[in-house]
């Protein structure tokens, strides 16, 4: 099983609700979280933050503590696949770039956790987002656990 890291970009809206940012896959256009391989010299959380910058063009404060994980099928360019698991790190978005590395290869969209759960391609990610929407997942920020009211 391959191990990757994922960022869960989120922000608080004017009405106090939470939105999460999903991006499309480069290969099939399905909705997902920014994710990738852990990077040499970076913690898993910082690797997830870097993936969010490259794939979604967002910056922010990443939590060093993962809030969950999800399983998926990792597809390779040769058409083969292998089971994978991505560890999820919350990223409170403080800046959205107009231009970023993979802008021409992906779309990004802010959604409510319920909308994101319905849009997510991977069933296990969809379940995680549904649990977030239902308040069964608690986001923490910078090591300080706190409930994020939806």
From TrEMBL:
Cofactors required: Mg(2+)
CDD domains in alphabetical order: NUDIX_DIPP2_like_Nudt4
Top-level taxonomic group: Bacteria
Keyword Repressor in record: no
Pfam families: NUDIX
Domain Nudix hydrolase: residue ranges: 1-133
One Gene Ontology term, aspect cellular component: cytoplasm
Protein's UniProt keywords contain Metal-binding: yes
MF-aspect GO terms: metal ion binding; pyrophosphatase activity
Keywords: Hydrolase, Magnesium, Metal-binding
The name this protein goes by in its record: Nudix hydrolase domain-containing protein
Species per Swiss-Prot/TrEMBL record: Devosia riboflavina
């Amino acid at each position: 099983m391959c191990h990757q890291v994922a960022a869960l970009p989120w922000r608080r809206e004017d009405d106090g609700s939470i939105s999460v940012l999903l991006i499309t896959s480069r290969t099939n256009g399905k909705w997902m979280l920014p994710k990738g391989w852990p990077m040499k010299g970076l913690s898993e959380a910082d690797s997830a933050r870097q993936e969010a910058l490259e794939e979604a063009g967002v910056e922010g404060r990443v939590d060093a503590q993962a809030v969950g994980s999800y399983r998926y099928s990792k597809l390779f360019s040769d058409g083969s696949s292998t089971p994978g698991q991505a560890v999820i790190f919350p990223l409170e978005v403080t800046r959205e770039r107009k231009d970023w590395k993979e802008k021409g290869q992906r779309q990004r969209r802010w959604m409510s956790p319920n909308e994101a759960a319905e849009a997510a391609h991977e069933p296990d990610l969809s379940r995680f987002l549904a649990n977030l929407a239902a308040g069964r997942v608690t986001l923490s920020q910078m090591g300080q656990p706190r409930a994020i009211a939806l």
